[in-house]
Amino acid sequence: MSEQADGSGTLPGNPMMWILIASEIAVFGAGLAGFAGARIFQPEVFAQSQATLDRLAGTLNTAVLLTSGLLAALAVSARKRGQRRMARTHLGLAGFLGLVFLVIKTIEYAEKSEAGIGIETNTFFTLYFLLTGFHYLHVIFGLILLAIVAVWDSIENLETGAAFWHMVDLVWVLIFPVIYLVR
Fold it and tell me: How far is CA 107 from CA 57, 73, 93, in A?
């Protein structure tokens, strides 16, 4: 593949990544639709359970991931300008923020566990842990992908890694309001 952006209007990065991204968005979309549907049948359980969530942590994680996504985009831009070192620096910072997200989410999970709340507590928490846990795994995979593309840093590789990382951002931007905010 070419190191130069060809301006042909095609999606950036490897086309197979876009197939993966579309399928992952479909899976998360179905999960969020299921969450919203379950809320209709158990509004009291969902309201009480949602009230126990740490909205500040969720908001902070949203800011962390969006900033990380910006850094991934800046990495691609820097690499296109031939600034490999700057691109790797941006990817490193994006990865660091991904780790910050995982730490905050792990603290949230630990607090729930200490309060005796788990995946079998009720429908809300079953879906909460499934959706956020699946996203957590995507963050881990995304961090591995960012590390790989930082080493093998062709423009196509960086675009491919950044596309996946943006999907991770997008999914969280959908999860956060549905689970933490919407009543």
Answer: 9, 28, 21
Total number of domains constituting the chain? 1
CATH number assigned to the domain comprising residue 163: 1.20.120.80
Q: 28 in a domain, yes or no?
A: yes
For residue 143, give its domain range: 15-181
- Of the candidates 121, 122, 128, 116, the one whose C-alpha atom is nearest the C-alpha of residue 42 is 122
Model pLDDT for residues 17-62, shown as the tens digit of each residue: 888 899 999 999 999 999 999 999 999 999 999 999 999 999 999 9
